[in-house]
Amino acid sequence: MDTARAAGCIFYLGFDDTDTKTSPKGTGRTIRDFCAGLPETFTLRAVLRHQLPKLPEIPYTSNNSSACAVLEADDPSLGRGLFEAAAAYLADSAPDGSDPGVCLAAAGDVDDALVAFALSCNAGKVAQRDAMTAASGAHLAGVGGSNDGIIGAAAAVGLTRHGWCGRFIELGDMRRLPALVAVSELEARGIRVVSVDRDPLVPLSGDSVATGGWLRPSLWGGQAVLQVRADGLGRWVAALGKRADKVAGIA
Fold first, then answer.
1. How many CA atoms lie within 13 A of 69 on its CB side?
2. Residue 34: closest CA among 105, 87, 74
3. Taking Cα atoms as reference points, which of 67, 32, 33, 35 lies closest to residue 155?
4. Rounded-to-integer distance, Cα 202 and Cα 92, Å
């Protein structure tokens, strides 16, 4: 994400493999619940869901997605405590049979090697040792099972820093917006509205967007971008909707 306007230190916190097939909630909900319990010394800026490939050789629970929280704090030294709290939370709350991993890095410490590793995760199976090497400048730990979650947790941090993939599952009051919302309201929350029609018009501030009650902007160029399609003059509909087979609690 673009952190140029941030007043304090920005941390990327990655979670992965925190659930099983029978768990009541997935990784996206787990990291959101953890962040909701943090003290006021941290400000949650966003949570992103990152999709990793579904391949026979890669073990995963349901959708092979990891999550990254973007947190702001005034004091960079708070990172170690944040990491330890996250690891303890997962060790205590992740169900038997899961393989949870956690990764934490200050935004400025996410180097090209970690981004390259994260992108390689989209091409096929990688090993835990690859994650540990790429995340040598970050905090990384497995806290249960096979510890395979360190792979997706590190990837979530690298992909967020990359800035061109994933979708926002938490951003301000995004989840409380109505099913029909003005473009101006989205823009006021830092969400750009972009038409992906073949011959696109430009969504104007006074136009409306039908989200179906499921608003999940994409991370494009380090910004929140809602992809829309035309639905008549001055009317737009979100181009990406909820999957029919979506597992409850994932995002």
1. 27
2. 87
3. 67
4. 49
CA angle 135, 138, 139 (to 5 degrees): 110
Residue 100 tokens, joined: 């949870």
pLDDT at 2 over 60: no
Question: To which residue do tokens 């101006």 refer?
Answer: 184
Q: How far apart are CA 38 and CA 86, in angstroms?
A: 10
Token couple for 197? 């029609």
> Tokens representing 191?
């969400």
Mean pLDDT of 162-172: 97
Q: How is residue 159 annotated by DSSP?
A: H
On the question of pLDDT at 144 being above 60, the answer is yes
**What is the model's pTM?**
0.91
CA distance 74 to 102: 22
Tell me the per-residue pLDDT of 173-212, one tens digit each, with 9 for 90 and over.
Answer: 999 999 999 999 999 999 999 999 988 889 999 999 999 9
Q: What three-state secondary structure class fits 50?
A: strand
